Amino acid sequence: MIAIERISHRYRSASTAALDAITLDVGRGSLFGLLGPNGAGKTTLISLIAGLIAPQQGQIRVSAQTLSDFRRARPNAIALVPQDYAFYPMLTVTENLAFFAGVQGLDRHQQKARSSEAIRFARLESVARQLAGELSGGLRRRLNLAIGLLGDPALLLLDEPTVGVDPQSRHFLLDAIRDLRDAGKTVIYTSHYMDEVEAICDRIAIIDHGRVLASGTLAEVLGAGESQLLLRLDRDLPQPLLKRWEAAHTVTTQGANSICLTPVPAAALPQILRDLAAHGLTPLALNHGQQNLEQVFMHLTRRSLRD
Ligand SMILES: Nc1ncnc2c1ncn2[C@@H]1O[C@H](COP(=O)(O)OP(=O)(O)OP(=O)(O)O)[C@@H](O)[C@H]1O
């Protein structure tokens, strides 16, 4: 549905580009996760897709049209649910929805129908008459989402929709996002939370410093990581063995007597076990396999998602 072709963007006051020749394809009806640490360029990218800022280089095509032609033909088809709360705290939930439905140019009948539908979908019935500024963090996020749904968008852009919410609302929001995808909407979703992205997204892209480091299905991106061996031993690793392993692997300490070796192809396991036996060490726990998304991310960026 969306083809992002070599999009670059540099803010006026910035010395480096926020986006540097980003190319991505997002299929119709898919749930696409954009992962990256602070400052990676996620918000800039979805602001470009939403048409809030104009691309300086490259182009975005939606349903085979240029973004501006698509937006002109279907002004409400792309909705952005921003990171910040985008409603009036002094208005009630219902008044906010009525106001934003009006902004979207819906007629009276549509305003009523779409507001009721958004309240129902976000399960805001019990707080419909409450001031938005008095809602809990989770309910505010749900109101943000409800406002984004008023125009019945085909493409929904969600910028960190679960930041600062309680576990129950987080669960609700993730289920709701999945339901939107199941109803045929295309959803692009940015997050710091690996577990969320692993749980709900069909495809993901890891971005950092404005570049795509990996993209594809979860299995494809995980496949780009290295195999690793996590070991918990009955005592400290002796220096000679550490030196020997460091010649073939990256060895990191993970806590008392726990270490992680990467890369460790399956064929290297028998020798590692022989090394342990030769030094009189007993593995208390041993876990060999693929890295998870967090580890792949660290491997690709050399930093944690929450730096
Ligand atoms: N209005 C602006 N003017 C100048 N530089 C900006 C502006 N907005 C963002 N940037 C810079 O552009 C880069 C990308 O920022 P962006 O907000 O897109 O990242 P992000 O991945 O969404 O980060 P976060 O998770 O913190 O929201 C950063 O280096 C940021 O400092």
TrEMBL record:
<dbReference type="Pfam" id="PF00005">
    <property type="entry name" value="ABC_tran"/>
</dbReference>
<dbReference type="InterPro" id="IPR027417">
    <property type="entry name" value="P-loop_NTPase"/>
</dbReference>
<dbReference type="InterPro" id="IPR003593">
    <property type="entry name" value="AAA+_ATPase"/>
</dbReference>
<feature type="domain" description="ABC transporter">
    <location>
        <begin position="2"/>
        <end position="234"/>
    </location>
</feature>
<keyword id="KW-0547">Nucleotide-binding</keyword>
<keyword id="KW-0472">Membrane</keyword>
<dbReference type="GO" id="GO:0016887">
    <property type="term" value="F:ATP hydrolysis activity"/>
</dbReference>
<dbReference type="InterPro" id="IPR003439">
    <property type="entry name" value="ABC_transporter-like_ATP-bd"/>
</dbReference>
<keyword id="KW-1003">Cell membrane</keyword>
<keyword id="KW-0067">ATP-binding</keyword>
<protein>
    <submittedName>
        <fullName>ABC transporter</fullName>
    </submittedName>
</protein>
<dbReference type="GO" id="GO:0005524">
    <property type="term" value="F:ATP binding"/>
</dbReference>
